[in-house]
Amino acid sequence: MLDVRRLRLLRELAHRGTIAAVAEALSFSPSAVSQQLSLLERETGVSLLKRTGRRVALTPAGQNLVRHAEDVLERLEHAEAELAAVRSGLAGPVRIGSYPSATRAIIPAALAALAREHPMLEARVLDVDPVGVAAALRAGELDLALVHEYDVVPAEPQPGLTGEELFTEPMYLAARTPSSLNDHSTSPWIMAPPGRLCRTMAMRACQAAGFTPHVRHEVDDFATVLALVALGQGVALIPHLGATAPPPGLSLTRLPMSRRTRTVHRAGAADHPAVATVTAALRMAVPPELL
């Protein structure tokens, strides 16, 4: 009989690429991860891993086993959801990942509704950049998350995860006067730091308009970005939730772009009472203009 915990480690290795990354994500030592994977190889009787320098790659047998592991873990999520459904009342922690503008605009109303209708349910909110959500969900650090994607930066499918669309919001060019992207090929720009999804979106949008932007400021807070734009420090791309209270001296020009937000959870967890209840509360908390 294959050990589910070892299958989970193999699945994580397939996604993360190194034993060190798996160990860090799941709070194991690298030697413990290696030992458990060696035991899994003994259980299967076939070679699952091949080492190439410091990285570990999966053999074809290992890749096939990961596909089965995804199915097994999804069935376990279904089983846990069914067991939770027969318990009386919702109680205990449920961990919700979110990004800052959604945390400010949507999460408070959802938490208020959950506290009123399910006082024993302990909702916990964690700020997580969308690029880290998949790993946090698979590692069990989150039960549910809000993630966003842009037209110019579509999300890649994530094995073992599923979800549903929540809302779509328009994007704006923030400048001191009404203008278009093409008007700012030589202007200074304000963008998020490298590695953030918002930075990738802004760079691709500018490149699609035919220029590479000059980035003067790197700021990952929309309120601060808008304040800097109003002071003439540059221009920026802002989603609707980040532009709800613009300062004076600012123009927001709507662009033919959008940002989509959806809920994401582990495959098989959609019917878990806590996940379903939180998802419903989040949907009810979406501002009316985005419905």
Largest sheet: 6 strands, mixed
At the fold tier of CATH, the topology name of the largest domain is D-Maltodextrin-Binding Protein, domain 2
| Tally of distinct domains | 3
The tally of strands reads: 10
Describe the structure.
With 291 residues, this protein is an alpha/beta fold. The protein has 3 domains: 4-84, Winged helix-like DNA-binding domain superfamily/Winged helix DNA-binding domain (Arc Repressor Mutant, subunit A, Orthogonal Bundle); 92-166 and 261-290, Periplasmic binding protein-like II (D-Maltodextrin-Binding Protein, domain 2); 169-256, Periplasmic binding protein-like II (D-Maltodextrin-Binding Protein, domain 2, 3-Layer(aba) Sandwich), CATH 3.40.190. The protein is 41% helix and 25% strand. The chain has a 6-stranded mixed sheet with strand order 4-3-5-10-6-9. A hairpin with a 2-residue loop joins strand 1 (49-52) and strand 2. Helix 1 (4-16) crosses helix 4 (60-85). The longest helix is centred in the first third of the chain and has 26 residues, at 60-85. The mean pLDDT is 90.
Short description:
The chain has helices spanning 4-16, 19-26, 30-44, 60-85, 100-105, 107-117, 133-138, 197-208, 222-230, 273-284, and strands spanning 49-52, 55-58, 92-98, 121-127, 144-150, 161-175, 188-191, 214-218, 236-239, 251-266.
